[in-house]
Predict the 3D structure of the following.
Amino acid sequence: MVTALLFVGLGHMPLASASALLFVNPLLTVTLSALFLGERVGARRWGAVALGFAGALVVLRPGAEVFSWASLAPLGAALCFSTNAILNRRLAGEAPPLATTLHYAVAGSAVLLPWSAAGNWRPLDPATMGWLALGAVVGAGCLWLVTTAYERAQASALAPIHFAELAAATAVGWIVFGEVPDAPGVAGIALILAAGLLATWREKS
């Protein structure tokens, strides 16, 4: 549902605005972990989330579109992601991460298949099928890694690290596509990396 809701949002607002809204998920994850998992969230962890979110906003620089009705879709995606993180943590020790990943994949396919069939379906060429297959393999691997991480660490500790996705995407754009980040982009990435270091530093407060 995270991807589906994000795609809905992208159909009505720019990528930067939708991505900025999606990156509220660490804020939601930390809040939900305190409410439903009873995790102790200290000032340092809250500070890491705030710093990472500030860095994401500097990189993305969203416009006024974040205040439109379409913003409900990426916000819903952020909430779904955070809920999934809390469920992963709740299921820690109950089932192997691979089994949990398989259940997510089967349930997601069952929910989205009728929606896809009702849409404007058309045959895909072999090249597109190949890229989709590669994306499926990479996506499954990512989901397994995320599930494994939440099996082994507190949700509130892992949440700020999600901002590293934005820094990694910027790095890939630079290396693969020659998209050199501007000064604000570099500054935002620096804030995100600082947030990751702060999040992984042993918290005493």
About this structure: Residues 2-200 form one domain.
